[in-house]
Amino acid sequence: MLLISCPNCGSRDETEFHYGGQAHVPYPENPNELTDRQWAEYLFYRDNTKGAFAERWLHSTGCRQWFNMLRDTVTYEIQAIYPMGTPRPDAAGRVTRETGTASLAPDSTTTGTAAPSISGTSLPAPDTNASTTAPEGATK
């Protein structure tokens, strides 16, 4: 199971997220002018790369925000997580010129800006005096 680091909520279990398909698939400029074949290619044809692959993910049980992830399809290693609408980084973390189709407006639900900032928060220090034994009556 993957441990995915949501840009808004931090690391969470993979079961909190929904896969949204390949990232950076631009919407056609004139969809009414496309042939049936071209429209089908836009809707259904996606890359099937072995290695680094840009994906869209939704944190469906958390902040409900979309974000992009660069993941290796062979090792499942997560190489980068970045906001919608920003260029795709390569495997080394450098930004490429490819762009997404998401809105960059501050009120957009696809940019991840609607969630509260967690930059000033921190987790409390662990209690060193906490008991490591189960309470009386608990079962294993």
Can you tell me about this structure?
It is a single chain. This protein is mainly beta. Helices cover 6% and strands 24% of the residues. The chain has one helix and six strands, in the order E-E-E-H-E-E-E. The two termini are 24 Å apart.
Question: Summarize this, please?
Answer:
The protein has one helix and six strands. It has one helix at residues 36-44, and strands spanning 3-6, 10-13, 18-22, 52-58, 66-72, 78-83.
Binned, the helix content reads under 10%
Shape field: elongated
The main sheet comes to: 4 strands, antiparallel
With strands numbered from the N-terminus, the spatial order across the biggest sheet is 3-4-5-6
Question: What is the overall number of helices?
Answer: 1
Order of helices and strands: EEEHEEE
Give the averaged pLDDT, no decimals.
78
Strand fraction band? 15-25%
Structural class: mainly beta
**Uncertain parts:** 98-123
| Beta strand count | 6
Task: Report the radius of gyration as a whole number of Å.
Answer: 20 Å
Q: Span between N and C termini?
A: 24 Å
Strands, helices and their partners?
Elements (H helix, E strand, L loop, with lengths): L2 E4 L3 E4 L4 E5 L13 H9 L7 E7 L7 E7 L5 E6 L57
Antiparallel strand pairs: 1-2, 3-4, 4-5, 5-6
